[in-house]
């Protein structure tokens, strides 16, 4: 509609240019509004759902599973950094109390393992990849074990060229959230996990 109005009121060339610019601005605005979602295990299944959904979900103390459902590029890297700092409690002054989703009376516990679901990251540029590498370094300094899940080949190639494998090992990359979560539970040395039920 914007292109049609611009063509009618201006000219064909200017109208097409306006349409292209408007489309680019729309994409940028949409990616800026996307929220990183904390996930919990839907009881009785192997599926992980957003904690703010309408399901009865389970969480394990010390384990944080996050889904970032948008491309990671220069325009979103700042938001990505702030969101991860908020969820993991990584402030400028060092490790802080992590923020939690769920009931307001729930006590936050230190995050020991974080799983990043990258299935929604369809594209990453060099700036976004460097942000992930820096996050990996900060997690290592804060003694938080970082796991990446469902990262497509193109994005993984960009992350590798940015030096991700200098910060994490191939054993920290998983094809599914379920596999990453199972590895996280083993790392947390939970044989009989105390599950926290969250109603949302």
Write up this protein:
The structure is a single chain. This protein has 6 helices and 10 strands; from the N terminus they run ααββββαβββαβαβαβ. It is an alpha/beta fold and 200 residues long. The strands form 2 sheets. Strands 1, 2, 3, 4, 7, 8, 9 and 10 form an 8-stranded mixed β-sheet that branches. Strands 5-6 form a two-stranded antiparallel ribbon. Strand 8, helix 5 and strand 9 form a beta-alpha-beta unit. The radius of gyration is 20 Å and the shape is elongated.
Write down the Rg: 20 Å
The biggest sheet, with number of strands, parallel, antiparallel or mixed sense and barrel status, is: 8 strands, mixed
Structural class: alpha/beta
Strand content: 15-25%
SSE sequence, one letter per element: HHEEEEHEEEHEHEHE
Residue share in helix: 25-40%
Average pLDDT: 81
Number of beta-strand segments: 10
Distance between the first and last residues' Cα: 39 Å
Would you identify the regions where 5 or more consecutive residues have pLDDT less than 50? 93-98, 102-107, 191-195
Number of helices: 6
């Amino acid at each position: 509609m914007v292109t049609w109005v611009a063509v009618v009121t201006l000219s064909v060339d200017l109208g097409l240019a306006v349409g292209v610019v408007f489309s680019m601005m729309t994409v940028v605005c949409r990616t800026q509004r996307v929220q990183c979602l904390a996930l919990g295990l839907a009881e009785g299944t192997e599926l992980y759902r957003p904690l703010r959904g309408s399901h009865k979900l389970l969480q394990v103390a010390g384990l944080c599973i996050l889904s970032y459902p948008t491309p990671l590029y220069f325009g979103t890297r700042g938001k990505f950094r702030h969101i991860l700092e908020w969820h993991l409690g990584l402030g400028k002054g060092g490790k802080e109390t992590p923020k939690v989703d769920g009931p307001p009376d729930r006590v936050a516990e230190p995050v020991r393992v974080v799983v990043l679901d990258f299935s929604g990251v369809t594209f990453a540029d060099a700036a976004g990849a460097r942000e992930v590498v820096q996050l990996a370094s900060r997690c290592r300094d804060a003694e938080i074990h970082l796991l990446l899940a469902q990262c497509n080949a193109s994005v993984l190639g960009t992350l590798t060229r940015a030096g991700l494998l200098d910060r994490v090992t191939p054993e920290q990359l998983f094809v599914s959230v379920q596999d990453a979560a199972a590895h996280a539970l083993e790392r947390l040395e939970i044989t009989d996990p105390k599950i926290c039920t969250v109603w949302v």
